[in-house]
Structures are given as C-alpha cells and as structure tokens.
Specification:
Blueprint (H helix, E strand, L loop, with lengths): L7 E7 L8 E6 L2 E7 L11 E2 L4 E3 L2 E6 L1 E2 L2 E2 L11 H10 L2 E9 L3 H15 L13 E4 L21 H8 L6 E6 L9 H7 L3 E4 L6 H10 L3 E2 L15 H8 L4 E5 L7 H10 L6 E4 L11 E5 L2 E6 L2 E3 L5 E4 L3 H10 L5 H16 L13 E5 L5 E5 L8
Parallel strand pairs: 1-4, 6-9, 9-10, 10-11, 11-12, 12-13, 13-14, 14-15
Antiparallel strand pairs: 1-2, 2-3, 5-20, 7-8, 16-17, 17-18, 18-19, 20-21
Helix pairs in contact: 5-6, 8-9
C-alpha cells in the first residue's frame, strides 16, 4: 500500500530499529517529520495506520553488488547503459533504496568505460521512485594474487599511487569505495591519497597481518570487504586482518549472509564479537544473474553456474550469489542467530553508517519498509510508501 498521495500520514504502534518500545511515526509532505513514544496501552487514532507492533525501517543499501538481470556492471557501455533503469527499478522492488555498482577486477579500459557510463547516470534524476546510485565500488584491481578468489590474475595491478591514478582516470569523483590489499602498498601512501579524494578504503582479498591491517586503519581505511572470504581465517595466535577489524571500533565489515560464504555459526560469532550493526553490515555480493533463474551464465570470459542462489566457477570457486540484500536479514532471523531489530538494521542502517550516509529517520523520505516477524521465525517485508531515496 502507498501513501504518497497524502500530505500527512501517521503510523501507530510501530517498532523502529534504534528506538525502544512502540512509536508513533508522523509523515508530512512525503518525509518523516516526527517520531513519538507511544504507550503499549494507547489506542491508535482512527486516522492512523495501526502496524500492531510491526517494524518500520528505511530501505536497504547494498554496498557490494556486481550486477543484476543479466548485466554485469564491468560490462557497462554506452550500448548497455539503458539496462540500468530496469535494474534500478528491480532493486527498488527488492527493498533496496540505493546501491554501489561494484566493478570487479578487469582491464583498466573496461573499468573506465563502466565508470564513464555510471558518471552520466549519477548526474541524472529519475522521474519515479527507484534505487539510487550514490557511487561506485571498485573491488580491485589492487588485490593480493594469493587471495584473488574469482578475480582474473592477468588484470591485477601493483598498488601504487601512479597505478591508482591510471585506474581512476578522470572518474575519481564517481568512486565511493575501493577494496584493496594493504600489504601491497610498500610506501604507506596510497590509503591517505584515496582518502584525500573522498574514497572510502575497504580491506579485502588480502593476506594482511593484524599489524598491517592496523597500520591501514591508522592511515584511514574504515571497511573490510566480505568478512572471512578472501582473507586468512581467525586464528588464536594470528588474528589477521579480520581480528584487527573486529577489535577496531571505527571499522565496519561487510558480510554475505547466504549460508554458503560463511557458516551461520561463524556469522553468529562475528555478529556477537562486532556488536551486530555497530561493526557489521550486510551486502548481497550478487552477480549479474540476480533476478534470473538458476542456470549457467557468462561472466567476463568465463562461465558461472548458479544453483539455489549460489554462483560458482567451473572449478568450484565460490564467486557470489544471486540472492537479494534483504534475504540476508531474513536468513539471520530464520537461523535464530540474530534478533529482528539487529537483522533489519544490518541491511538498512549499518550500510548507511559505513558509507557516511544519514541514519537519522527524521527528514528522510518516507520510502519505508514494513517488516513482520512470525512466530515460526520468518521475517517478511513490504514497501508502504515511496519517494526518491538517496541524493
């Protein structure tokens, strides 16, 4: 149901991530105007919508998504640019307010061609509610070859400021996040340089020790890409990159909660150690077959096979998922390892916090998600209003 045609609307008996108890949410002129505590015994006003204890949240923000509806973002070109519109609409229908198209390791020419297309999109204003693109995530090409995963080795680059400038070209302002392996930077100058450009640095596909990771955090890195994957595991004498990240109060770790990339038990350990949405945010890491049925699909010069939402290369290498962002939140509740409030926050508030986007509800466009938790552990959602999300 949609209330976009009304200038004022009140939702009663609402639960909101970050708020204690029931709330009354007042929407005026398409934006959240006020949030007021509401006693559990209060009778909802006749002109309000009674949510009967269901949760409301902002839409999801996916900071790592590689494609959808058959288009891989590194394959973007002027000829395929029109495919972004249906992708944005599809992601909006999947509860995503905004996302960072993620360019995995490929040739510098391909990266800059894709960035040119996305730069043009960033300066356009869609006429209707749709998933917004606040910027781009470059996952590579500055990765450790020993932890490259599904990234093609022939396109990996040495991590120097000169090479970074070559990759970014004239599109540095388009890039919001860059994943890199910090141990490749012998000078210690690359992360400060990227931060000076306004780019958030995420550590990943790396063999960094805890000491090397801590040095990168001191230099300005604030994120970790898909925790546990493409990095050494936690070890009681060698905590490594992930151990250093969990212990750091200003570092946010992305997490793929599909049950394949990380076991539910390890997810529970990670969530508890990192204080849930304070240190973790969910990502989909979805590939181009997102929104398409299982099957075999092209992926750069190779093929991937998708089975039950998990994508692998022919040699069995795990390469990503075709499950949407909010499926991760639903999984956490279904597995019984995360309270509903934290699960919702991990997909909605935590990614915004990691990217430096506003997390205060007041003043946000009222493009809200309503979540309902069943007695059997299922978590469902629906959009109840809509305006353009992220600007």
């Amino acid at each position: 149901m949609s209330q976009t045609s009304q200038t004022s609307q009140t939702y009663s008996r609402v639960r909101l991530p970050g708020y204690s108890g029931l709330q009354r949410v007042i929407v005026q002129q398409g934006a959240i105007a006020a949030i007021q505590p509401q006693p559990a015994t209060a009778t909802p006003a006749s002109d309000s919508i009674d949510l009967a204890g269901d949760w409301l949240s902002l839409g999801g923000v996916d900071l790592q998504i590689n494609g959808a509806l058959g288009l891989a973002f590194p394959d973007l070109s002027p000829a395929t640019a029109d495919k972004l519109t249906p992708i944005n609409d599809f992601l909006w229908s999947q509860g995503v307010d905004g996302y960072l198209p993620t360019l995995v390791t490929t040739s510098i020419e391909n990266i800059q061609r894709s960035l040119a297309v996305l730069a043009a999109v960033l300066h356009s204003s869609p006429p209707s509610p749709t998933a917004a693109i606040p910027g781009v995530h470059l996952e590579g090409p500055f990765l450790n070859p020993a932890k490259r995963g599904a990234h093609p080795q022939e396109y990996l680059q040495p991590l120097t400021i000169d090479q970074v400038k070559r990759v970014l070209g004239e599109y540095a302002q388009v890039v919001k996040v860059m994943t890199l392996a910090p141990e490749l930077d012998e000078t210690g100058t690359v992360i400060p340089y990227l931060r000076s450009l306004g780019i958030t640095v995420s550590l990943g596909h790396s063999l960094a020790t805890a000491e090397q990771a801590q040095r990168a955090f001191d230099q300005g890195a604030t994120m970790v890409t898909h925790a546990f994957n493409a990095m050494p595991p936690l070890h009681h004498r060698q905590p490594g990159l992930l151990g250093a990240a969990i212990a750091h109060p200003q570092v946010h770790c992305g997490l793929i909660a599909d049950g394949q990339h990380v076991s539910p038990l390890m997810i529970e350990i990670l969530l508890r150690a990192a204080q849930y949405e304070q240190g973790i945010f969910l990502v989909s890491d979805a590939l181009s077959p997102l929104g398409l049925p299982d099957g075999v699909y092209p992926w750069d010069t190779r093929q991937i096979e998708v089975r039950q939402g998990t994508a692998r290369l022919p040699d069995g290498t795990l390469s990503g998922t075709t499950l949407g962002l909010l499926v991760g939140a639903q999984n956490l509740v279904r597995w019984g390892i995360c309270p509903v409030e934290q699960a919702i926050a991990l997909a909605t508030l935590a990614p915004r916090r990691a990217l430096g986007l506003p997390t205060d509800y007041i003043g946000q466009p009222a493009h809200l998600l309503r979540w309902h938790a069943t007695a059997t552990g299922e978590l469902t959602w629906e959009r109840i209003s809509g305006n353009h999300p992220l600007h």
